[in-house]
């Protein structure tokens, strides 16, 4: 240790100069053969040596001293990483993470076949070794044991389309590393499900409601969308929930006929049939989110509601049905990716509707924005691509004929980081605000 400290000090210009001068003095006086001088030089050497050691030890200890937490500094989160209620969790970058995911496709038995990329033969694994890092703060890594302890006797619901299902499967995979989950309900199509973690009495559910509204579909007609009626499949259960993650999505781009006040008022992508006015998908999406917002604000039941923003896809050179593909193996850096027009429009609607809360929006109200759009845009490498099925190119002469999935996410994969920001937005920040307010 003493040698290391001495070397550290010698590396500094002042230390080197001081030692050099000391050695020169000793060298010049060595020509006088005196035992008294010899003892004196020996004493000086030891004195200088131990002085240098003591000085180095002082500076090193001082540099590692931990100062008390100032009220102006961000507090420590329960995971030990720095976080702040004022930090923008959704602006940042993906950084390498050699620790990898919290689960594998072997340790989790709840991965849908379409998202089990490794089992289906995806050859690269680099996409597994990245984590989301906000620009101005630390994001604690998801702790399944802490999460389950925090949600004892609670009910957490996800409402939306297949991306919501993708998200809940990611959460289940992480939590199942601590406690195996029991499926206690599913509908006929296996789209809506309820699970329970028995030792924590924690209930988790996903409700299939791609429009969030009442909708009717038959095999020989367009989708009928009722813009003034929320889907009763989730509204009748709403009073049971303690936490809700709700989201819209790509279903609003489908051909739809709009109903309001018991009359047909327009459509989207209906190509002029029945002389209907094409009002656009932004019209129906805005109506939906306004209706959703009013429902949450007016309800006597006050769960914590997260609205998850739109998920951009990464199809290149076409769409899902026109030969589009996604074969990138690295994340984008901030500023390298550009959103498609449809995603831009949907995001603008989301921000327009939810920013109307003003000071009541976010912390302090029961509805918050889970703004995963930006972080998701930077991960073109995280989709199944052609690996929706095992060995997708076997026996195929033209690889461009293999359909790609560039919207959903591989499990494990980037969507796991949604849970990091979800928990920080809800449970961790609730604890932080409680500590700050007493």
Percent of residues in beta strands: 15-25%
Kindly state the percentage of residues in helix: 25-40%
**Major sheet attributes:** 7 strands, mixed
Determine the N-to-C terminus distance: 45 Å
Could you name the key traits of this structure?
disordered C terminus, TBL, disordered N terminus, alpha/beta, transmembrane, membrane, 32% helix, 13 strands, signal-anchor, transmembrane helix, 7-stranded mixed beta sheet, 438 residues
What does this protein structure show overall?
- This protein is an alpha/beta fold.
- 32% of the residues lie in helices and 16% in strands.
- It has helices at residues 2-10, 13-29, 35-64, 144-150, 162-175, 232-235, 281-298, 341-354, 373-377, 416-437; strands at residues 92-96, 130-134, 155-160, 182-186, 193-197, 202-208, 213-216, 223-230, 243-247, 256-260, 263-268, 304-308, 367-370.
- Strands 4-5-6-3-9-12-13 form a 7-stranded mixed β-sheet, covered by helices on one side. Strands 7-8-10-11 form a 4-stranded mixed β-sheet.
- α1 (2-10) packs across α3.
- The model is unreliable at 1-38, 52-83 and 432-438 (pLDDT under 50).
- Residues 86-138 form the Trichome birefringence-like N-terminal domain.
- It is a single-pass membrane protein.
Compact description:
With 438 residues, this protein is an alpha/beta fold. It is built from 10 helices and 13 strands.
């Amino acid at each position: 240790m003493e040698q290391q400290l001495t070397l550290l000090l010698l590396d500094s210009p002042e230390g080197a100069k001081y030692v050099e001068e000391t050695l020169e003095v000793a060298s010049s006086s060595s020509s006088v053969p005196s035992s008294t001088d010899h003892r004196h030089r020996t004493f000086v050497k030891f004195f200088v040596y131990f002085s240098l050691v003591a000085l180095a030890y002082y500076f090193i200890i001082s540099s590692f001293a931990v100062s008390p937490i100032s009220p102006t500094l961000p507090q420590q989160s329960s995971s030990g990483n720095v976080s702040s209620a004022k930090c923008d969790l959704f602006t940042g970058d993906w950084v390498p993470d050699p620790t990898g995911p919290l689960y594998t496709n072997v340790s989790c038995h709840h991965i849908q076949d379409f998202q089990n990329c490794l089992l289906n033969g995806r050859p690269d694994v680099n996409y597994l070794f990245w984590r989301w890092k906000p620009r101005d703060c630390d994001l604690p890594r998801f702790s399944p044991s802490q999460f389950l302890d925090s949600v004892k006797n609670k009910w957490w619901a996800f409402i939306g389309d297949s991306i919501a299902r993708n998200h809940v499967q990611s959460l289940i995979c992480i939590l199942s590393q601590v406690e195996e989950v029991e499926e206690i309900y599913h509908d006929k199509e296996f789209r809506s499900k309820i699970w329970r973690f028995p030792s924590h009495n924690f209930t988790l559910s996903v409700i299939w409601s791609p429009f969030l509204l009442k909708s009717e579909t038959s095999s020989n007609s367009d989708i009928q969308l009722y813009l003034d009626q929320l889907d009763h499949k989730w509204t009748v259960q709403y009073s049971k929930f303690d936490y809700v993650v709700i989201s819209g999505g790509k279903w609003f781009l489908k051909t739809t006929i709009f109903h309001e006040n018991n009359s047909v008022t327009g459509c989207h992508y209906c190509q002029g049939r029945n002389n209907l006015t094409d009002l656009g998908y932004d019209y129906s999406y805005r109506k939906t989110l306004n209706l959703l917002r009013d429902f949450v604000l007016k309800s006597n039941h006050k769960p914590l509601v997260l609205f998850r923003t739109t998920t951009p896809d990464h199809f290149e050179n076409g769409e899902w049905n026109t030969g589009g593909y996604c074969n990138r193996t690295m994340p984008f850096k901030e500023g390298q990716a550009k959103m498609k027009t449809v995603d831009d429009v949907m995001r603008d609607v989301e921000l327009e509707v939810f920013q109307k809360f003003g000071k009541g929006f976010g912390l302090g109200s029961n509805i918050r924005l889970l703004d995963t759009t930006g972080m998701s845009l930077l991960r073109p490498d995280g989709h199944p691509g052609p690996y929706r099925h095992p060995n997708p190119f076997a026996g195929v002469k033209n690889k461009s004929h293999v359909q790609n999935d560039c919207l959903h996410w591989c499990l494990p994969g980037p969507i796991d980081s949604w849970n990091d920001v979800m928990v920080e937005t809800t449970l961790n920040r609730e604890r932080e605000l409680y500590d700050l307010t007493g």
